[in-house]
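Bumping with the actual sequence this time:
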Amino acid sequence: MEGIIIPLFSETATISIDYYKLGSIVLALVGKKIVSMLLGDVQKYAVKDVVSKIMTAIKTEIKHKLAEIPLQRCSKIKKEKFESDITEDLNRVEQGLQNGFINGMTSLITAIGALIVMFKMNWMISTIIVISLVSFRNISSSQYE
């Protein structure tokens, strides 16, 4: 169906707006945003779960290593400060891991999406670009070995 014809500057110059098509585009964008938000939440939950398992293993290993260190000679204040510093450092490592995983996953998904769009537009040029990038990477990495 054709939308409403709106005369703008003169009676001969008119613009036709298809409101049904516009509505379907708006709904598609809203749906994309909702899916993006849901996948972002799933990504954050999965990363938090993975990082918490990694950090639990690291904390367990550090506790075993600290148990082997003779801290009897240290005063109680120094021992508490030492444990506080370790806890603070571990929290920084945990935040860094979470941000790193999220940024890495986002970059990977973006690269895959860009490849899909490239191949949909022109598969021949996309193939040449991918082969060029892979060969350039191999050449540049072999220079540093």
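The tokens above came from a reply further down the thread. Residues 37-143 form one domain.
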